[in-house]
Amino acid sequence: MVRRFLVFSGAVAAVLLASLPAHAINLGGSAGHFKKARHSFIQEGSYAVAPMGHVMFCLANPTECRKPSLIRVTRVDLTGQRRAVLDEVNRAVNRAILPVNDRSGPGIIDQWSLAPTSGDCEDFAITKRHRLIQAGWPASALRLAVGRVSNGEGHAVLVVKTRDGDLVLDNRSDAIRPWKATDIRWVSIQSAEDPRFWRSL
């Protein structure tokens, strides 16, 4: 679901930044309906301030934000089985969580929750990431990303890095699309090297 993302206060941002280390593929039906697309990968920029809700989520759920033992960016080979799993997880989570917009305002930190019965866009995204990791997918290929949609509101999704390009799992649709084929104006994404840190887009 769409939402406004809170920005760190200057003091919190300074502390976090100081700690930082020196076309479409559509699954509209079955997994067999994948269409080949030209490879398109997100180009990351410099380190960025993480959403406050994600910082709090990592503090409460450290295993979900654990640094991979192998520091490398993994591009998943989309075999037929992996395509089916991606489709299944995306659809299952979209149906398992009742979409509810959080009411937020100045000074209110958004709650990021894993597998709630109802929740916002980031709750869908972290739940999909969790389930895919449980299914054996490499954590470095599964990254949360935030941006703004056409009405200007903030939105969070899961981005999956594959050899066919970076794909977006969005709670607003069961179709899995390349990152360039969405209406999202990208802001930042988790680092593949360490999911506690984020990079600008």
Question: What is this structure's SSE topology?
Answer:
Elements: H1 10-18, E1 47-48, H2 52-60, H3 80-96, E2 98-99, E3 118-119, H4 121-134, E4 142-148, E5 154-162, E6 165-169, E7 177-178, E8 185-190, E9 198-200
Parallel strand pairs: 2-3
Antiparallel strand pairs: 1-9, 4-5, 4-8, 5-6, 6-7, 8-9
Helix pairs in contact: 3-4
Summarize this, please?
By secondary structure, the chain is of the alpha+beta class. The protein has helices at 10-18, 52-60, 80-96, 121-134; strands at 47-48, 98-99, 118-119, 142-148, 154-162, 165-169, 177-178, 185-190, 198-200.
Describe this structure in words.
This protein has four helices and nine strands; from the N terminus they run H-E-H-H-E-E-H-E-E-E-E-E-E. The model is unreliable at 2-37 (pLDDT under 50). The chain has helices at 10-18, 52-60, 80-96, 121-134; strands at 47-48, 98-99, 118-119, 142-148, 154-162, 165-169, 177-178, 185-190, 198-200. The protein is 24% helix and 19% strand. By secondary structure, the protein is of the alpha+beta class. The protein is globular and about 45 Å long. The strands form two sheets. It has a seven-stranded antiparallel β-sheet with strand order 1-9-8-4-5-6-7, covered by helices on one side. A two-stranded parallel ribbon has the order 2-3.
